[in-house]
């Protein structure tokens, strides 16, 4: 049964705003907010459990909501809200009139189903949700096996990360853990880590990424930490021909990832059954 909400002061509305603004609330309630038709659809396709959906009939395309709800799992609470209330919840214009509250997934290495020669992206101490979202878009576009975020400084389900990543946090496996655990796991799986560093002498396009590989990207402010500078199989760099010595981390990652994909002839082999 659909409930109708017309006030900003409704407790459900207040809680959605709280979840959007406070990482602590997301952790304590084990809930996240997903804004946008495409993002919610990706979450559903990837098996995320949706608790509730808030929709605005004045924004939704005619007939869309009935079709969307009929295809969604049963048991989702539905809230019809006025345009004024919906604008209180929404952060952007291209949301399509839908916002959902869902359970996050906290994946571990045991959840990964790797290809025989996997390609991974490892991010150390990523700080900006916008950068994280852009990195996840690239990872999805290249169909990477997973993104591993070491010692994160931002919540992977930050609404800005979800928005800037157009929901790619739902479409590919994302793990948060420590650098120490990640390096140990990579060694156990015989996946070679290639760290990007300004001090490297090896150019990225002269590096063989056709074997099981992990591309390691550090923070824009400080680069890679000692554990990766010493633990990487090879340190690599992108040649900088101008007056600056670095690029945005999401741009750098895209360059190296697509070089790896080029070397692999953009093939996507079948997943391992193990």
The residue ranges in which pLDDT falls below 50 over 5 or more consecutive positions are none
Q: What is the strand tally?
A: 12
Radius of gyration: 20 Å
Tell me the major beta sheet: 7 strands, parallel
Percent strand equals 15-25%
CATH architecture assignment name of the largest domain:
3-Layer(aba) Sandwich
Output the strand order for the largest sheet.
8-7-6-11-9-12-10
Number of domains: 2
The helix count comes to 11
CATH class of the largest domain: Alpha Beta
**Could you say what the CATH topology of the largest domain is called?**
Alpha/beta knot
The CA-CA distance between the termini, in Å, is 43 Å
Mean pLDDT: 91
Helix content: 25-40%
SSE topology string: EHHEHEHEHEEHEHHEHEEEHEH
Helix vs. strand class: alpha/beta
Task: Please tell me what the overall shape is.
Answer: elongated
Oligomeric composition of the shown chains: single chain
CATH superfamily of the largest domain: SPOUT methyltransferase, trefoil knot domain
Description of the molecule:
The chain is an alpha/beta fold. The chain is built from 11 helices and 12 strands. It folds into 2 domains: 2-102, Ribosomal protein L30/S12 (60s Ribosomal Protein L30, Chain: A, 2-Layer Sandwich); 109-263, SPOUT methyltransferase, trefoil knot domain (Alpha/beta knot). The chain has helices at residues 11-21, 23-29, 37-45, 64-71, 83-89, 129-141, 159-164, 168-171, 179-188, 226-231, 249-263, and strands at 2-5, 32-35, 50-55, 77-81, 98-102, 119-124, 146-150, 174-177, 192-196, 202-203, 213-217, 234-237. The strands form 2 sheets. It has a 7-stranded parallel sheet, sandwiched between helices. It has a 5-stranded mixed sheet with strand order 1-4-3-5-2, with helices on both faces. Helix 6 links the parallel strand 6 and strand 7 (146-150). Helix 1 (11-21) crosses helix 2 and helix 6 runs parallel beside helix 11 (249-263). The radius of gyration is 20 Å and the shape is elongated. The N and C termini lie far apart (43 Å). The mean pLDDT is 91.
């Amino acid at each position: 049964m659909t409930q109708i909400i017309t006030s900003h002061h409704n407790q459900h509305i207040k809680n959605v705003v709280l979840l959007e603004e406070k990482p602590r609330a997301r952790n304590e309630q084990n809930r996240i907010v997903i804004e946008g038709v495409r993002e919610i659809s990706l979450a559903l396709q990837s098996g995320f459990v949706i608790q509730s959906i808030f929709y605005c009939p004045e924004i939704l395309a005619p007939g869309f909501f009935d079709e969307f709800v009929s295809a969604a799992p049963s048991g989702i609470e539905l809230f019809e809200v006025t345009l004024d209330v919906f604008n209180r919840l929404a952060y952007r214009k291209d949301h399509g009139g839908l916002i959902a509250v869902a359970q996050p997934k906290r994946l571990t290495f045991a959840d990964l189903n790797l290809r025989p020669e996997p390609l991974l992206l490892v991010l150390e101490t990523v700080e900006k949700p916008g950068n994280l979202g852009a990195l996840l878009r690239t990872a999805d576009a290249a169909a990477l096996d997973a993104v591993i975020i070491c010692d994160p400084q931002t919540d992977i389900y930050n609404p800005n990360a979800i928005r800037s990543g157009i929901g790619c946090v739902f479409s590919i496996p994302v793990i948060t853990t420590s650098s120490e655990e990640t390096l140990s796991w990579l060694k156990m799986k015989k996946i070679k880590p290639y760290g990007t560093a300004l001090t490297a002498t090896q150019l990225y396009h002269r590096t063989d990424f056709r074997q099981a590989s992990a591309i390691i990207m550090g923070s824009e402010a400080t680069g890679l930490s000692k554990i990766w500078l010493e633990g990487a199989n090879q340190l690599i760099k992108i040649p900088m021909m101008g007056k600056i010595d670095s690029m945005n981390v999401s741009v750098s990652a895209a360059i190296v990832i697509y070089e790896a994909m080029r070397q692999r002839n953009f093939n996507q082999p079948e997943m391992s059954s193990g």
